[in-house]
Each structure stands twice: as structure tokens, then as C-alpha cells.
Design a protein that fits this description.
Helix 1 runs antiparallel to helix 9 and helix 11 packs across helix 18. The protein is α/β, with parallel strands linked by helices. Strand 14 and strand 15 form a beta hairpin. Helix content is 36%, strand content 13%.
């Protein structure tokens, strides 16, 4: 079932249709002036692979700080929405910033290498990756804000009998990175149901009480599921919606229904840029917060802009993105055998949300949870971290607090109400339930 033999002819047509909906560039993007080999030579970076586990060179910034230019890279997932919308609607320009069109790359490996090497200086990143960067690789990265909330799911083959985490024994499940919300969240579910997460080659023989986890770049997940090379995956949108619509896959569980309004990707920058150009960073964060407000009020328009039918930031059609932004359908996802993809309709959340403030409670939870999560490579550094100390060193919330206050954000983002600010607008209690 999990060999590398080509798929049956009957699946060829579906595979071609799927390929059309994620026709990613042959190289990372024409905006990258150097090919991958040339870039790695010039930045002296050692390939880290999707495991994000090998050594990297010391941090360097290649651009002159006086250029006043933000260079944004992104993975073609909806996690990048605020950065892309801020560019599309001219919010960076309104702040007086020179921001070329963001550059799309295929994998977290390339995005991480490019950020560390100075190719990009303002980007989104899976929250645990900056933890690895700062405390394992000693890269002076700072988390400035959350980029979005929720926006991911566990997706399984439509013909499988998998309904919940308890059904994953003996199965093969892909994650986008070892250092991801997806990895620790799926492992939380596996362990809660008495199963054992293991890390072995894709397709390896495992026991009935084991769940084999392996890394795949997000664009490769739907084709691999279609080809029966695995049983399921956990990843950001639009790949769950794409798999639902194009290959009749099924959502097993939405991530936001496990951890209410959880962070997934965050906005990061280099500490050196923050120290040298604080005004530029403030303006950039202003634009991102403004974009998040706009996306919250205009989900259908956001889907159009991002799609290939709009401005082509994401190489999927508008109908797929409309499903991401608007299809958290209680009628559809609350039917069928238990457990359902949505177990907590009372949480009143969406399939994807936008919330810029990086709550310390969530940061500390992630650091603590990663210390319990299996990853490939040496992860001893995680167990040595004090969550309170690490959270303060990793996150700089100065800029996002100012942006939210200046925009008088009430009602949205749980920041306050119409009568005024809440007593503790920057605190919350984390709500999790595996089910």
C-alpha cells in the first residue's frame, strides 16, 4: 500500500486535476534571483532538510539597513494571509515602506534557510521553528505577533475508517515539520488515546499501537494521500480543503477544535533589524494588524485576492480558498459517526481566524509541549528551557501592543469591548480538549 509504485491509471485524471490546483513553480520563485545551490553557497548555509535538525551558520544580514526595505518570503498556505493582504491592499505602502511582492517558496526548509541567511527579513514561520532557531541554533530571531489562529486540520483518506485519534494505530501520518504545531498536536492526540508516536521511514512496518510520523512539504501531502502512500496528514490550509474538494478526502478533526484559537504561524524578524530600525518594524506590524482586521471583516474578498483568480499569491482556485475562509459548516461537520471533525460548536470559532497578540500563556504552553514531543534530531535543548524565561526572550510584543492600541481595536481579537478596554486585554486562559 505504501510503496513508491506509480498510481493506477484510474487515479491519473484525479492526480492531474490535483496538480493543476497546486501547480507550484519549478524553482522556489522567479523572485529569488539565485537558484537553491547558488543561494546556499552565498549564504554558507548547510541544508537543514525538513527535519530542521542540522547545524546552521551564524546569523548574518546581507542587506543594508538604510534601504528601508522589507523582504518577505512565504509558504503558499493561508497562514501567510495577513502579510499577503497587507501587500495587496497597499498597507505597507501606506506606512511609507518599500515592500516588493512577497516571494513564494515551496518548503519550510527553504524559508528557514532564506531567513537565517538574510534573504528575507520579515516573514511568517511555524511557531516552534523560531524556538528551535533561537535556543538551538542561537539565531537572534524575535516573534513580533501571531499571523493567524486555527487554520489547520487532520485529513484522512475518504474511504478510510479513521474517525478519531484512537483509530490511528498502525497508520502512517505526515506532518509539515518536526517543529510545528501540527507535530505536537497530533502527538498529543495519539498519546491521549494510548498509542505511541514513532519516527521511522515513510511506509515502515509498525505495530498496531504505534503511529508512524514523517515529514512532507505541504504541497506533497494531497498527492501522497491520493496515491495511498499514507493514511492521513495534518497541515495548514488550503491543503485540507483542496484534498476534500479534489480527491474526496475527509477532515478527521479541525485543529482549532482541539485548542481553541491556537496560534500556528507567527510573524518574525531579526533582532538586529528591530534594534536598528524600530520605526520600520513598527510600521510593518501596523500594516499586518490592519490586514488582519480587514480579513476578519472580508473573508470572501480575501479568498479572491489570494487565489489564482485574483492576484495569484496562492496557486489554487478561488473556490478552494472560499472553503477555507467560510466553510466551517456545523451541519456538515457534526454528522456521521463519532468523533466528529467539530466536537465543540459552542466555542464559536472559524476554520481560520486572525489574532495578532502573542499571548504569553500560549507561548509557554508551546515551549512546554515541545519538550514532550518526539522530533528527529537532538531535542535536549527543549527540555532544558524554562518556559517563562524562554517566552520572554523569544517574543517582543511591544510593536503589536502599540498597533492595537493606536487602532483602538475593540471587539475583535478579544482585546476589549465597545465600552472600553478589558481589565487584562493581554491575558487569556488556554482551552484544550483532545476528545
Amino acid at each position: 500500500m505504501y510503496d513508491s509504485v506509480a498510481m493506477e491509471k484510474g487515479a491519473d485524471t484525479s492526480q492531474k486535476r490535483l496538480a493543476e490546483d497546486h501547480n507550484f513553480l519549478k524553482e522556489e520563485n522567479s523572485g529569488l534571483s539565485m537558484n537553491r545551490r547558488s543561494f546556499l553557497k552565498k549564504s554558507a548555509a548547510i541544508t537543514i532538510g525538513t527535519t530542521l535538525g542540522a547545524s546552521l551558520p551564524l546569523f548574518s544580514v546581507t542587506a543594508k539597513s538604510s534601504e528601508q526595505q522589507l523582504r518577505i518570503g512565504y509558504i503558499p498556505i493561508t497562514d501567510a494571509t495577513p502579510l499577503l493582504i497587507a501587500h495587496s491592499l497597499g498597507y505597507f505602502k501606506d506606512e511609507g515602506l518599500n515592500v516588493p511582492r512577497p516571494v513564494m517558496v515551496r518548503s519550510w526548509t527553504v524559508l528557514s534557510e532564506s531567513f537565517i541567511g538574510g534573504k528575507f527579513n520579515f516573514t511568517h514561520m511555524l511557531f516552534p521553528i523560531p524556538i528551535w532557531m533561537r535556543f538551538k541554533q542561537k539565531v537572534p530571531v524575535k516573534v513580533l505577533a501571531w499571523d493567524h489562529t486555527n487554520g489547520s486540520a487532520v485529513t484522512v483518506h475518504g474511504e478510510s475508517d479513521i474517525r478519531g485519534f484512537g483509530d490511528l494505530g498502525g497508520r502512517q501520518i505526515a506532518v509539515p515539520s518536526w517543529y510545528s504545531t501540527h507535530n505536537y498536536m497530533v502527538q498529543m492526540g495519539i498519546v491521549a488515546h494510548g498509542l505511541k508516536p514513532v519516527i521511522r521511514p515513510q511506509g515502515a512496518v509498525i505495530a498496531r499501537d504505534e503511529v508512524n510520523l514523517f515529514v512532507l512539504p505541504p504541497p506533497e501531502m494531497p498527492p501522497a494521500l491520493l496515491g495511498r502512500k499514507m493514511d492521513g496528514f495534518i497541515v495548514a490550509e488550503p491543503f485540507n480543503a483542496l484534498a476534500e474538494m479534489k480527491i474526496k478526502a475527509r477532515i478527521m478533526r479541525f485543529s482549532g477544535d482541539i485548542w481553541k484559537n491556537h496560534p500556528c504561524c507567527v510573524v518574525i524578524s531579526h533582532e538586529q533589524l528591530i534594534k536598528e530600525q524600530p520605526l520600520m518594524v513598527q510600521k510593518a506590524v501596523n500594516a499586518v494588524v490592519r490586514a488582519q482586521l480587514w480579513c476578519t471583516a472580508n473573508p470572501e474578498k480575501a479568498a479572491h485576492i489570494l487565489s489564482r483568480d485574483g492576484e495569484g499569491y496562492l496557486p489554487v482556485n478561488e473556490d478552494v480558498l472560499l472553503r477555507v475562509f467560510t466553510a466551517y459548516d456545523l451541519k456538515e461537520y457534526l454528522t456521521g459517526p463519532l468523533p466528529h471533525p467539530i466536537m465543540h460548536p459552542e466555542w464559536n470559532i472559524g476554520r481560520i481566524g486572525f489574532q495578532p497578540y502573542p499571548y504569553p500563556s500560549a507561548t509557554k504552553f508551546i515551549i512546554s509541549q515541545m519538550a514532550k514531543t518526539k522530533v528527529e534530531g537532538d531535542s535536549q535543548f527543549l527540555r532544558a528551557l524554562d518556559p517563562d524565561v524562554a517566552a520572554r526572550a523569544l517574543v517582543d510584543d511591544t510593536f503589536v501592543k502599540k498597533a492595537m492600541r493606536d487602532m483602538r481595536v475593540y471587539g475583535s481579537f478579544d482585546y476589549g469591548d465597545s465600552a472600553g478596554e478589558l481589565q487584562n486585554p493581554f491575558e487569556r486562559e488556554e482551552v484544550l480538549e483532545i476528545g
